[in-house]
Amino acid sequence: MAEPRETIVVGAGVIGAACALQLQRDGHQVRLIDRDPPGAGTSSGNAGSISTGSVVPVALPGMLRQVPGWLLDPQGPLSVRWAYLPKALPWLLQWIRASKTERAESYAAALARLTLNAVEDWTSILEAEQRERLIHQKGQLLVSRTQEAGKTELFAQALRDANGVASETVDEDALRQLEPGLSRDFKRGLFIPDSGHTTNPQALTEALVALLQAAGGQFTRAEVLEVDQSGGQAQAVVTAGGRFPAAKVVVATGAFSLDLARPLGDRVPLDTERGYHAMALKPELALNRPTSDMDRKFFATSMEEGLRVAGTVEIAGTKAPPDYSRARRLLRQAKEMLPDLDTSEHRFWMGYRPSLPDSLPVIDRARNVQNVWYAFGHGHLGLTMAPATAQQIVRMLRAPGGRLDDNDFRIDRF
Ligand SMILES: Cc1cc2nc3c(=O)[nH]c(=O)nc-3n(C[C@H](O)[C@H](O)[C@H](O)COP(=O)(O)OP(=O)(O)OC[C@H]3O[C@@H](n4cnc5c(N)ncnc54)[C@H](O)[C@@H]3O)c2cc1C
């Protein structure tokens, strides 16, 4: 007797887990496959910010002029491993193109579609128990030592305003009221009231997988080797532990997605912006909300396990070993941001942001295979965009031909 055919989602990071759950709820029989436990990869180590209305793409006009300074500054937020530069060059060139004003404006409008209701999207995908433990809505605070906003910051604010993102400027006194632990060096801030956060990103993905299993879906731990297709139809997902016949396949393997997409004939400039975190395990102080040092470009968030400071971009691909001096520097910078922070007990981590140069993900059907879809490339905002991405995948799998007419996240946009 032929085995039943399932909808298989590959990758149990926050994106794949959200897609798997929403597809199971939409009537599919889902199997989620990952080589690691759910949410253990990049989705475990992020800053936890559910950044409602995070519409500002990474590449912005005028930024190119700042890049050499960042690269030369050992305290800077960006580094490139020179041995990786030839590989990264096409991505970096597209990133420069993406920083043009009109492009940044159009990417912001697209980001708004996946981020404007992020907290609501998260509360509606979860059930009460996990929602109460894991999702908090206390806004987000961006702080600076400078007296006035520079050009790039003003442009970012114009993008927020144009896309209907609520925000309030905050003076020095109001900063202290919002976050009493902040250093006196900070002179002003921006408060984004509708933003939220999670206090445990990995538990959040685990919660999605537990809901999937409770709804009748399955989780299988295995390395996926390929999606076997013939005649433009995926037949099965082949793993190190066996072959799973598939009616439909969703590839959501983050920074590793091209390993499966390339053999199916799809190429996009996906690379990784590696990021680090340092976790102060006995911080002796707490922040009320994710707080970002705008000058040094990192976030600090109080979590169940301690206070996490996360950020930096390292262009070095998926194979080079971590450079934990970047995490050590984050810890020092956190201490400067929050002078009473106890950093004596800490832990370091590195993860792989799956990034496309225009800061938008790919959410689309494979070009040449009728029953394979992609959900990858969420860069700096995967936690924020996961529920909206899952909704888009559900709509696509229902749509005639498996595609949506009005799709900003097409695979053939490059
Ligand atoms: C320092 C840092 C801070 C961040 N802060 C935030 C934040 O505050 N807010 C926010 O919204 N986003 C943030 N992000 C971004 C966010 O974490 C990512 O966009 C998101 O985790 C990507 O999720 P994913 O499911 O696509 O990828 P992943 O979490 O990497 O999941 C992919 C999964 O695929 C699996 N996989 C890969 N290949 C295979 C294979 N062949 N077979 C089987 N399994 C496979 C992996 O094991 C992994 O579990 C941050 C990222 C970093 C690095």
UniProtKB/TrEMBL annotation:
It comes from the Bacteria. The keyword Ribonucleoprotein does not apply. Pfam families: DAO. The keyword Transcription does not apply. Residues 7-395 form the FAD dependent oxidoreductase domain. Gene3D superfamilies: D-Amino Acid Oxidase, subunit A, domain 2 (3.30.9.10), FAD/NAD(P)-binding domain (3.50.50.60). Keywords: Oxidoreductase. GO terms for molecular function: oxidoreductase activity. Its EC number is 1.-.-.-. This is NAD(P)/FAD-dependent oxidoreductase. It comes from Fodinicurvata halophila.
